[in-house]
Queue: 3 jobs
Job 1
Amino acid sequence: MTRSIETMMDFFLREKGELIHINGVQQRALIRDAVDKIQASNEKIIRATTLLHTGNFIDYRNERYLITSEIDHNEQSYRSRIRKCNYSIAFNWNGNVKWFDTIVEGKSFSVDTGSVISFPDGKIQVYLQDNADTRAITLSQRFYNTHQPFKVEGIDRTVNGIIKLSCVLVFISTSDDDVENNIADRWKYEVVHTYALTIDNGTEANVLINDILLLNCAVTDDGDPISNPSITFSSSDPNVVSVDNQGKVMGIEVGQATITARLTYHPTVQATIQITTVESLTQTYTLYLTGNPTIKVGQSASYVSQIYDNGTEVFDQSVQWSLQNQDNSTPIMGNITASTGNSATVKAGNNSNYYNKYIVVTATLTNDPAITMDKTIQLKSIL
């Protein structure tokens, strides 16, 4: 009877098998659920004519599985159990970060009794394919899973093809760990980038139908300008206002649209400008301030106001400069030591009580005091 069932399964494998990948190589296999009831472990049984090994990766229906059992075989095919990899984990070797598809569990099912074995709070087990990269994992090495840090406290290599890690929850390293992206010690070896993108044409501008306005964008990293940044532009309504990848905006028909500029490789860093397509232009002034967002106490920095009329920079207007504390308190923690029609020099007060506090420099259009632009400046320690 058993032989008959095996023969039938081999027939179904040949006739009904699905295309999968075993360690990246396309094969045909028959896969079914290992149990009738749905379980969290998501375990299945695979049958293939190709030799299977414990620790093989199986890519099936856009999911990755790991062969976790010994291999059973007859004259025609091989059979084993597979479990879906439920997490991707990064290990960091002195700045060399490698990601691994893993099975992570905080509790396990006993093979003999079917009962649940719970691990102590704060402990997990991680199953990985045994390969040259995973064999480099060492005791006490840290990693992140679900934004929580763990340390390897045990390594089990008794099952051919699989490495099992026993891990315990540890403390976050706030200075070194990239918690958001689940990478331990990332900032210990990498420079932290703080990107900013601005559209210098202001927050809004008008453009004539069939006319072009060029957007002037600036990108900084920790306040330092980046030359030739890669920026992607988009329009909320291309039928009203179009934009190309050079930032050339064209009015298509009367109406409004929002143009968004994004850093191509860091799309969360973005800036917007509202563009109105009009049949005739009236003067619409906007201001934009450039200058360092921080000043060390007792030192000075220069700030420049660019003046735009409908998004085009003009040079026949001027601004008035003023300075105040961000919280409007007194005395003001700095002063304007020099100013012209479009630039000013701000000097921070020399007082340790000012560390990490903020002042605000304001440019006001001389011919229209209703048009202003602020720039917030953080006062930093001189050390």
Job 2
Amino acid sequence: MKPTVYEGTMASAILVTGGAGYVGSHTVASILERETAPDFEIVVVDNLTNAYRAEGHKKPEAIRIIEELTNKKISFYELDLSDKQGLSKIFEKHSIECVIHFAALKAVGESVQKPLEYYQANITGTCTLLEVMRSYGVFKLVYSSSCTVYGEPERLPIDEGHETGRGLTSPYGKSKYFCEEIMKDLCTSDQRWKIISLRYFNPVGAHRSGRIGEDPAGIPNNLMPFIAQVAVGRLPELMVFGNDYPTVDGTGVRDYIHVEDLADGHVKAVRLFQQPGFSGFHAVNLGTGTGYSVLQMIAAFKSASGRDIPYRIVGRRAGDIAANYADVSLSHRLLAWRATRTLEDMCADTWRWQSNNPQGFKSS
């Protein structure tokens, strides 16, 4: 499949794979809100699996709205990372200096049902990207990883020294772990590589404008968009997967991080490439260091929205664990980054997005 391209070329660029998705789009916005150099360009590649494009529009809604918010143009290609030839043409057309790699399938529960699809998209797609990067002499990569690489935690909070790859509970987590191992081997084989793997905890929230946010296709796989859709009346009730975990109230505990804080972490990671002597593979947690249970999240969102959140307790979901939250001290030291937005901010911004856009981007 030949890539569909919009906009022209500029002197230097960051390639963002999966840049029309949830975290990718907020990161694109964060970069453009901070960058002022006239020769700077963002190039987004996305196959639109997790993004919406209105009929008759050339670009997905998230990208179109970011252009309006920042008054800057974004080069967009509809392309799957399995298309090595199409990806190579993008590298030929643009002067790409580094890559931020989000493109992946991302639902833990779904990955248990569709392991082959997850391995194909997340591992094969990443290998294709790395091959093309190497061919064009691009060796700087920020990778969208996950705290799922730690498996069932042996200790809390989880720091980057925690063993990875052991006791992994889902093909999604395994795919992220395998990609990290590939990247480590790559950095060992060739010292030109500079790779920062950002291990996310649980992204939630929305852009402060209320115009871009999480817009999953079908029934949400993650807690916050599910709660938001119940609050807005789009879904009748929330399913709580298990209340017999060894936690404060029996429901799963997670470290939730505002997506704008997460996006800011990527900006910091890109800037780290400019430091003299920086090289090799580095894994960094991005979280708040605080865990909240499902029931605590429901109560917080009810307070922020003023809406009731009906819920029903059901059985545990395959691939889930009892609790995880981050030790984020390395992100403070290495990236000079820390999360600043509160749980109340996360809920208020999610509600602003969902209430203004009850059908997600289709409401735009």
Job 3
Amino acid sequence: MAIVQMEQITKHYRMGGQRYTALQHISLEVAQGEFVAIQGPSGSGKSTLMNIMGCLDTADSGTYMLEGKRVSALSDNQLADVRNKRIGFIFQNYNLIPSLTAYDNVELPLIYRGVSANTRKKAVLETLESVGLSGHMNHRPAELSGGQQQRVAIARALATNPSILLADEPTGALDSHTGKEIMALLAKLHAEGRTIILITHDQTVAACADRILYIRDGAIA
């Protein structure tokens, strides 16, 4: 079953009075349980594509179906609900809240979702254990290494049991050894049945996926 379906997605921007094409006629599908990498150089349009996939931005034209629902037909509240419940975001720079512990960072999206305290605690403990950080739950980001911070970010993405993990350059801020550990963790999650869409410029990172889509100048190459 296709969990992501895009048909003829186009996106333009205006900068300094000029019109730029960020994406041109993108069509792709991602099936449930797939691990797909979208690889391209800086400025290729891959971040714009990720923002549209993650319902953080909208296309100018074309159709985006997420789990069989037309995204353009959803209200702002429905889109916020999709981002909170259906998509788990993993960012290059972790996007953790510095003043919160690892436990609190993972718990936060569950609080926004209105999950009960007991259910939240179970989910947080399970996800932190699944990424190997059960012994670091009371540490704040500054007390953790880059790899540990990314593991917290992955646990936060997993906590809501999303349909898709959307990873934007998840190893970009890490050294090569730690990056390999993070990719091994993503491979483990995929083996457990997770659907993962990985955005990267790095061919070695992309090679960890089952399928690679190359994007250049806003088009699938």
